[in-house]
Design brief:
four-stranded mixed β-sheet, mainly beta, OB fold (Dihydrolipoamide Acetyltransferase, E2P), about 45% strand
């Protein structure tokens, strides 16, 4: 049995009749719930057995994900968790468009994000691939790695610096960045 999400297209009405956990729209049968799809070949019915253990991102949720690739105007984000303490059982795909990374003009999304960065983002859509935004102050990169030596970057005031090779890099840094440098005040 295959795991399906709400609004996943299961088949057309000519093949099967819609049953529990499904709905019909324009001749297509869609899943109404998260669960496992079952095709009853004898009765020619399709139904979805709801899964109570599978959670999916919802509109407005703040999720944690890792930038996995992209191009100048959009990146793919592998959505890993609802927060650092609540990982999803399965990863979801997110899309982060350049218009959702800053209030200011950005020529390339790679000016503010890099592949491998861990980001905190808000979910804007209800179906995979989930549209994401990092415009709010608590959203953005929460962990980044040096593009020269691979060491974790440290937030030093408003900049990200590498403690190993002293490289400085720009990112759209979240207020919740995980590694910060604390200075002792001297009098």
């Amino acid at each position: 049995m295959k795991l399906v999400l709400p609004r996943d297209n299961l088949c057309v009405e000519e093949e099967f009749m819609a049953s529990t956990g499904t709905y019909v729209e324009d001749g297509n049968i869609y899943s109404a719930v998260v669960g496992r799809v079952v095709y009853d070949m004898n009765l020619r019915r399709v139904y979805v057995v709801p899964s109570k253990k599978v959670s999916i991102p919802s509109v407005g949720d703040v999720v944690i994900g890792q930038v996995s690739g992209g191009r100048d105007d959009i990146v793919f984000v592998k959505i890993l968790a609802l927060n650092l303490a609540m990982p999803f059982k399965t990863a979801f795909t997110g899309l982060l468009h350049i218009s959702q990374v800053s209030e200011h003009r950005v020529n390339s999304i790679f000016e503010v994000l890099r592949v491998g960065d861990l980001v905190k983002a808000k979910v804007l859509s209800s179906k995979p691939p989930f549209l994401l935004s990092i415009k709010e102050p608590r959203l953005g990169v929460i962990l980044a790695y040096c593009s020269k030596c691979g060491a974790p970057l440290v937030k030093d005031n408003d900049k990200l610096r590498c403690p190993e090779c002293c490289n400085q890099e720009n990112r759209r840094v979240s207020l919740d960045y995980l590694i910060t440098r604390h200075y002792k005040r001297t009098r």
